[in-house]
Amino acid sequence: MTIVGLLDSLRISGSGLTAERVRMDTIANNLANANTTRTEQGGPYRRQMVLFSAVESDRRQKFRVGGGVRVLGIVEDPTAPRLVYDPQHPDADSEGYVQMPNVNVITEMVDLISATRAYEANITAINAAKAMAMKALDIGRG
Question: Which of 10, 44, 47, 106 could form a disulfide with 77 if both were Cys (CB 3.0 to 4.6 A apart)?
Answer without folding.
Answer: 47
